[in-house]
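All the exercises in this workshop are built on plain-text protein records. Sequence and backbone structure share a record, each on its own labelled line. The structure tokens are whole numbers drawn from a learned vocabulary of backbone shapes. The record below serves as our worked example for the rest of this section.
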Amino acid sequence: MSKQNPNIKIVADNRKARFAYEIVDTLEAGLVLTGTEVKSLREGRSNIQESYASVEDGELWLINSYIPEYFAGNRFNHEPRRRRKLLVNKRQLAKLAQAVEREGMTMVPLKIYFNERGRAKLELAVARGKKLHDKREASKERDWEREKARLLKERY
């Protein structure tokens, strides 16, 4: 994303998600944040490694994401691991709920970033968990690509 547009600032990246899950579809969702959460995100200190999204009561929620307290926030600070509401339109929400309920998929956050307008956005993936043999296969493939690039580089 940031390679395409220099105005986008990536705050948190869930690199393990691409290894542990087979990504089927991605979409962009807005985040409902408080002022101290935005300031803390702008400092680049957040973690979405163990978080996931869930549809509850017709709304989409980001659960278990970590945005640390803003150091100058005093008593107006936020809870670091609170549930955060995600903003998507109704059609996207229905599609996500159907994928999770019927097809047994999960919603995994991939990135939190600030777009060109300075709004915090979340790249959310609908994914299917990989089995252990699939992970090994992906690891072998990645190692072979590295070795192939190394051999070609030495040759020329």
Summary: The beta strands are 9-13, 21-31, 52-56, 59-63, 84-87, 106-114, 120-129. The two ends are 31 Å apart (CA to CA).
